[in-house]
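Title: Prediction job returns without error message
Component: structure pipeline
Severity: low
Priority: P3
Assignee: unassigned

Description:
Job completed but the reporter wants confirmation the result is attached to the right record. Sequence as submitted:
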Amino acid sequence: MLKLKLDISRQDILLLAVAWLLIILIIFGAARNLNFITSLENSIKDFYSSAMLSTNDQNEEIVLVTITEDTLSQFDYRSPIDRQHLNQVITYLIDAGAKIIAIDILLDQKTEAEKDAELIKTLESSPIPIVSAWAGLEDNLTRSQASFLNLYTKNLIKGYVGLGVDEADGIIRWIEKNVQTEPKTVLSFPLSIADAIGVNLPTERYKINWTLGPDSTLSPFKKYESHFVSVLPSKWFENKIILIGADLPHSDRHMTPLRYNNGYGASDMAGIEIHAHALATVLSGELNRNSSSFISILVTILSLLMVSIISLLEIMKIVKTCLLIALFTSIWATGALLEYHSINTPPLFSASLGMITLMLYGIYICERKQRRYKKFISNAFSRYMSQELLTELQRNSNNLKLGGEKREVSIIFTDIAGFTKLSENIPAEELVRALNSYLEGMSEIILRHGGMIDKYIGDAIMVIFNAPKNQEEHSIKAVRCAIELDLFAQKYCRETKTEGLDWGITRIGVHTATAIVGNIGGPVRFDYTSIGDAVNTAARLEGINKVFGTRLCISKNTVSNCPELFFRPIGELILKGKSKALKIYEPVSGHYPQRDLYEKAYKYLESGRNHEAIKVFTSLIANNRSDALVQYHISRIKNGESGVLIKAKDK
């Protein structure tokens, strides 16, 4: 039994390992420095986190008091916020027994002197902690604004109101830690509030844990407009953390990971509410977003390893495809599971690109092994010589020596349309059985007509007439052989279809020309074959059938030697790489009823009289709608082409 070792070569193993390591480095190194990659990864994580959020009761510790458009409409000016109103709200909240009040409004400029004085007096004399918003020159404050802010709030607890923006995509994801200023460090707004009420502060930068309210459209925080506060029950604010800030449609609004939620947070969110989410995260103590990346790295490495192994497996393509799809699905499902448990997820987009790269490279290695195997099998079967050659060698053993001669030969090439696709879709045993039966029938016809089977190339056959021995009328023999091969192939195609096998039509090309014929190879291994342009032309005539819709294509060189047979012209073909046109024909029955009408239409086409030609071709197709060649000529005319000169696009 012929056997070929299909193990992966050391070179392929080395290249695959290098590619694997490079992809790992890119995923966990270079890709993280590319904003567009990081943005895509973040979007995936945001989508997962939004999809997995569950509804919760509203937060019982934090209450938002908001400045809205309705609030501003009650004052003579919009900005700065009326200090008297702010003073009245804060006074009421202090009297109501609030635990702490945090003002997310920059008090960075003068308003009315009396109102300014009353407000700062209330803030500085408050019996409960008051946290005042702070920002600096780096936050686009003017020097006069920064100076007033620092002077006005010098005796208050300050909280930096900058938000934890992700630089890759501008989405708010982080709890800001602090900002360094002179003479001391200012904590971020939520951390400053937490510090003022005695909560232990995180030592690192953590992500915000976003939450939903009682349903997916409601905020998790109770919100009251500031101009209604004084008429609300004081118990609603007793021992609560109060955040006061603006909730305006076009000011201080930002995108968050909740952008993929269909309800709450889907568009943007007010800064005051983002601070509330950050503060709630700190108060909960669930600062686990900065967990180890070990699981994420492990999942990525295992996925890359598995895709490499699967792509190299010698299994059916449909099974391999299903396994790869399952693997891709599993890594995305694993990412969702890790996100649900607040564990760092793998970089799914980068990992998927890496998996695709390794998959394509592994498939390339596998396909290359298959091609080598097929080549090995082809070479092994070429050891079987034709009976004609054996007979000639018995008469003259000198033919065993290397070398060849130029002689005129007629060459047939046959090939089955769609055979590659067929071979992928049926079991190997069934394919070999059907192919052997087909080749046996074809070979019997070839041998009966005196042809020499030069070689089988998979499902294709190359046949030579007039070698190794001289044959009279070899062109006629070749054409008659081709016609009978066509009849057999059509019959075989019909029979196999009844058995449920989608066997394609057989295309045949015939050409007569001078070629080099002889023993080609080396002293240890050689084949008796034909080489040269004649062989290439015959092969290309076989392939050009698919353009015209024909099954047989025969060159003028052959047709000129067959005066007793009947043909109809196809056109004058310029093969790729050639400058001289080759007239080609299709054999027809001597009883072909429309022969004269076809030749009339062809002459019109040849002389450029397209209008007359299409009329005659149309009448032909009316009588025989299955005439693919006539349909081809009609299509050419409709596309504005004229004449019978045809340029082959493929080799």
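Comment from assignee: result matches the submitted record. The chain has four domains: 10-33+291-374, 54-247+266-284, 384-561, 562-651.
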